[in-house]
Amino acid sequence: MIFGKSLSRLPDEELIVRLQGGEGRALEEIYRRYSPLLLRYFYRMLWKDKERAQDALHDVFMKIIENPLRIDPQRTFSTWMYSVAYNHCKNEYRRQAFRQSAMTTMPTETIVSANVEMALDRKAFSETLDRVLQEEGDEARTMIVLRYELELPFAEIGAVLDCPEGIVKSRLFYLKKRLAFALDPYKTILEK
Fold first, then answer.
1. How confident is the model at residue 160 (pLDDT cuts 50, 70, 90)?
2. What's the CA angle centered on 189, arms 187 and 192, to 5 degrees?
3. Residue 124, CB half-sphere, CA atoms under 13 Å: how many?
4. What is the average pLDDT score of the chain?
5. Domain spanning 1-97, CATH class
6. E strand spans, the chain
7. Which of 58, 87, 143, 173 has the maximal Cβ count within 10 Å?
8. How far apart are the C-alpha atoms of 63 and 55, rounded to whole Å?
9. Alpha helices in 96-137 (DSSP H)
């Protein structure tokens, strides 16, 4: 407790001011709030590679530790944080010579079990979804993750991607239509 007020009850903006003033406990609270969300974002964006996601999370927080004054006070902290995360992913893609995740091969033996068959169908669906999102590009994948996995509002997604809220809504609308078309063969899987 600081002056009778727990850090967990402070808004992000006040935590940032305290962090920029050198208060280490403010960083701990920011990490507590944002690390699970960012880790999930990085995991989804970086080929579902846990180690790579953890490294990315570490890199982002090291940037904050090394220079807390780089946090843009004109933006909400969450928007600033997701913008940094988005840019980190773009840089990671540039460093890699490929943009497709490794596809695992299906077993060659015949499988009779209905549970195993359903699991394989779900895996095929997941791989198809990942492939389609890879083909759509980084921005599309980011919009899907931010909106449907992290449940950010359209305005904040627009701020992360540096485009108007209406553009985000429009792009997501058409992206969902393309995804629905590409994933149509899997309708029965989704209904189970």
1. very high
2. 110
3. 17
4. 82
5. mainly alpha
6. none
7. 143
8. 12
9. 114-136
Give the domain ranges of the chain: 1-97, 99-192
Do 27 and 19 form a contact (C-beta atoms < 8 A)?
Answer: yes
| CA–CA gap between residue 37 and residue 53 (Å, rounded) | 11
Topology agreement, domain 1-97 and domain 99-192: no
Residue 84 tokens, joined: 């940094």
Pick the CATH number of 99-192 from 1.10.1370.30, 3.90.650.10, 1.10.10.10, 3.40.50.970: 1.10.10.10
Spatial distance between the Cα atoms of 145 and 151, rounded to a whole number of angstroms: 8
* 42-94: pLDDT as tens digits: 999 998 899 999 999 999 999 999 999 999 777 899 999 999 999 998 888 88
Give the residues across from 2 on adjacent strands: 5
What tokens were used for 129?
């979804």
Contacts of 79 (CB under 8 A, 6+ apart): 156, 159, 160
The tokens describing 58, both together, are: 């570490």
